[in-house]
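Q: Start with the shorter request: fold the first protein.
A: Done. Sequence, then structure:
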Amino acid sequence: MRSTITFLILFSIQLCAGIGVGTSGLGVLPVELSSFTANLSGSNLELRWVTATEVNNYGFEIERLKDSKWEKIGFILGHGNSNSPKTYSFIDDKPLKGKLQYRLKQIDNNGTFKYTKTIEVGTDFLKYDLAQNYPNPFNPSTVIEYSIHATSNVKVEVYNVLGKLITTLVNENQETGNYQVNFDASGLSSGIYYYKIQSSNFAATKIMLLLK
């Protein structure tokens, strides 16, 4: 069960004038941002923003501060020209542990750009977790999701009811974040199987059912 903690960070944020290139000397902004929020849901972080109006808006680059440097983690296409509110969202499915800072780089159709103000959110909510596979029962494949609280070696394995190892799905070093892996049981017979995760001091096992 995932709990959602909503952090309403900033309201009525306007794009910062004077940053970027080709800024209008009249101070008229091509995109008016009316809200910019961050929401924590399970081990994901959702950024959501709303524009009041848009003029020649190509889109938004999403940037996250890491090691004192801003890095691009995504892009959302804009609506071009609009006089009505438009809602945008972006999911950071591998947020880093600790306090994070995000900003948007709004880009015009002609290539000029401006930055929003920065929002900050804590991500200490990240934890180790092994979710129930879906679909379940399944045939012939299913998805297994898990979360890692700290960088470590991660091993995800599948066993039959006799405890015999069927396959190793993951065995590698992974960073903090949310992951998913696909299990294809095309060559196996119907029955109950177990999948297990081991990472650092965390271990968990769940049951899944293959029906053919």
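Q: Next, the second protein, separately.
A: Sequence, then structure:
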Amino acid sequence: MTTPNRPVARDAIRTVVTDIVQQANVTDMHTHLFAPEFGPLNLWGIDALLTYHYLVAELFRVYPQPYEAFWAMPVSEQADLVWRKLFVERPPISEAAQGVVRVLTALGLDPCARDLRQAREFFAAQDAAEYAERVLDMAKVDILVMTNDPFDPAEERVWRVAGAHNPRYKAALRLDALLTRWPEAAAKLGIPDADAETLSHNAVLTVRRFLDQWVDRIQPLYLAVSLPSDFAYPDSSPRTALLREAVLPTCQAHNLPMGLMIGVRRQVNPALRLAGDGVGRADVTVLERLAGEFPGVRYLVTMLSRENQHELCVIARKFGNILPFGCWWFLNNPSIVLDITRQRLEMLGATFVAQHSDARVLDQLLYKWPSSRATIAQALSDTYEALSSAGRPVTEADIAADVNRLFRENFRQFVNLA
């Protein structure tokens, strides 16, 4: 057994790295999960797992039928159909399908069952709050960050109830409605059409008051928005004016980072609903302009296109207020995570956030994090073996410190989370 400050033999590096990564706690900095206090917004269980939008998209590749016939089914029947077509009649080899298998295995359920009776009985017997704690502990997630939409009436009702705050679930104030659907948001804020069109001084003040109220209400760790692949800054759109005059000044006033998730193409197939979004390459130079114009704002950045990853690394090297994070959405596949993590380690060292789960269903933590841990451990092992071969030995303490940075501390320091 090695001591933490003794160099690790080169032929033992992979084993040591894997052990440290597997045991490390993680702070899951971006999810679509909700605390149990949010009731039906807290998705968990076999039906939610199987009707996840990745699997819905896969279903239609093997089972052509009218989309609306599927959406007309009760959720339990949708789940039965997905199970039969993707798990019983063929081996579940996609990453999303294998994820469900990993969840069932982790919970001691039969991934080869012909039907969902056993799984449904198991989940029906669980208490939502106790089960959530169990899953977080199993996944070694100490804290996770939700995605909280201030324009969602269902969320607003929960936030107005005393005790809605859960210490293991932190908030992120999501501004998609404000920054991508401005006319709709302005109407909800009671801003007259003329003021909305010109983004008048009164309109800006209304938005600022709204954001201040929500920051006070939910205590977010950061503000966030998912932006299209054609996002431009600056331009003549309301989005530029809102960012420049309301959103980024709010970040400055409250000392909160701005989360930018760039590269989605919404509803390329609307009939697929949530599964109908696509991906596009974005103009990364917008980050140069934002980081340069607002140097006092910290930016958490992830990009959806694989082709944007190298440019993101280069820009992060030039601006210390940009922190790249995770492998988002379509990038969250082991082969791609491995490539991106290697690239970031080579260009940025351990100064990024290695991964986030992006989970929408609580149980997904039981496969997304083990999968990410294994892939990131592989990239780190390659890095430390190369360093050792170059003549600089590494210790267990070195490795543990980097793993903690990548999985917890880089994000926590960036958002001032103790």
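Q: Describe the second briefly.
A: The radius of gyration is 22 Å. The beta strands are 26-28, 141-145, 169-170, 173-174, 223-228, 258-265, 278-279, 299-303, 322-324.
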